[in-house]
Amino acid sequence: MGDAYADIPRHGDNYAKAIAVCINSKQCEAEGKQVMCPSYKVTGNPNLSTGGRVRLLKAALSGDDFQTKLFEPEIVQALQSCLSCKGCKRECENNVDMPLIKAEFMAQHRARHGTSLRSYIIGNLPRLLFDYPALGKLIRLRNSSPLLRRIGARLTKFAADADLPQPVKHKFKKPSNLPQRPDAKHKVVLFIDTFTRYFEPEIAYAAISLLDHLGCSIDILESQQKEAPFCCGRTYLSQGMIDEAHDQAQRLVSALLPHVRAGKTVIGLEASCVLGLRDDAKALRLGEELTEVASATFLLEEYLARELKGAELPQLSSDAPAAFIHGHCHQKAVGAMKAVRRLLKAFSAPDFQIMDTGCCGMAGTYGLEVENRELSLEVARHSLLPALESTEKGLIVANGFSCRQQINTLTKRRAVHLAEYLNGYL
């Protein structure tokens, strides 16, 4: 029957308890430099703040007709507008995890209304890219044809005016000459996420070269030849495909565990994927093996800033351009921007600046979706685009795949990963 004292709704069981963590302090609606909540920041609509979404969900779950109330348009819109930035998980006093609350909401919505074609494509993207190599040609054809853009918008609900990310012709391939240093102090296993593998493999090659330059012994997590590459499950989780996300995360954990027990550190290049393994996967009940792997998993910048602290590092060349750093929301959510700052100082990067750019608005596929496209652009115009106007003579560094896509599309400038910047100017 809930708990009136603790403000727990009558229905929803553990889901209601997760929502009731909110204490209605309205920190999520405060003015300031916090990450949360991008959609509230640009609209001022209290229903689009973390606390506002909680209030709507509590009201729906408190009535006997909750199974109907939970899916009313006002609540669907409020949850749909969440960019899953994870700012609330870090900045809220009680660590309300709205992205996970949204994922479960979407799972319930799927159970009630079925899976849309767009959700199927987004969730299964890692598998589709593996099974259908020609998918890249189809996307390039769609992006080049106004007619196909319009037809695609009707069929899939991807916004016609948005460029879909295009897989490259040659995906990542494990180098045959990886440096194996049995006596090396730093032994790592590199997890190549779906987006790096199929869309920007040059980032993985840059990271390998950088780690090699710094004396690391490197291994690459690779599946068997006829098996799909490993995936953290984030694309599935983002669409409320909980069972599929569980299976992918379990498969990844099982593959990483022997490396971790052999004393290697797991390094990831995409903040969302690392956070998915270190944080979101804990909700999937994967047990102690996940805890063991998660505790040994770091972003590239986190690992280097920690392990190379106090070491004499090579300095960046004098012709290295000024770097303007845009932080991915998930980097900010785990405090990794401090590691970026320490690392750039250690390499004596010239004139670098970590910009106050807020959220880019792309948030995975959020900015590609018809119903979210305009809000995505509003979020980008709020802080990101004004900040980038003053960086014409510098290099934009952004470690998030979706951030780079948003920047590339809206400014026609190529943003690079930190690994590319450091490796390119050592």
Counted by DSSP, the helix tally is 23
Count of folded domains: 4
User: How many beta-strand segments?
Assistant: 7
Low-confidence stretches: none
The SSE string, one letter per element, is: HHHHHHHHHHHEHHEHHEHHEHEHHEHEHH
In spatial order, strands of the major sheet run 2-1-3-4
Terminus-to-terminus distance: 62 Å
Identify the overall geometry. globular
Mean pLDDT: 93
Please explain how this structure is put together.
With 426 residues, the protein is α/β, with parallel strands linked by helices. It has four domains: 101 residues, no CATH class; 40 residues, no CATH class; 120 residues; 114 residues. It is 50% helix and 6% strand. The protein contains 23 helices and seven strands. The strands form two sheets. The protein has a four-stranded parallel beta sheet with strand order 2-1-3-4, sandwiched between helices. Helix 10 packs across helix 11 and helix 13 packs across helix 23. The radius of gyration is 21 Å and the shape is globular. The mean pLDDT is 93. This is Ferredoxin-like protein. It comes from Teredinibacter turnerae (strain ATCC 39867 / T7901). Keywords: 4Fe-4S, Iron, Iron-sulfur, Metal-binding, Repeat. InterPro entries: 4Fe4S_Fe-S-bd, 4Fe4S_Fe_S_CS, Cys_rich_dom.
Secondary-structure map with pairings?
Blueprint: H1 13-19, H2 38-43, H3 50-62, H4 66-69, H5 73-80, H6 87-91, H7 98-113, H8 117-123, H9 125-131, H10 135-144, H11 146-156, E1 187-191, H12 194-198, H13 201-213, E2 217-220, H14 234-238, H15 242-261, E3 265-268, H16 271-278, H17 287-294, E4 297-299, H18 300-307, E5 323-326, H19 329-333, H20 336-346, E6 353-354, H21 373-388, E7 395-398, H22 401-411, H23 418-424
Helix pairs in contact: 3-5, 10-11, 13-23, 15-17, 18-20
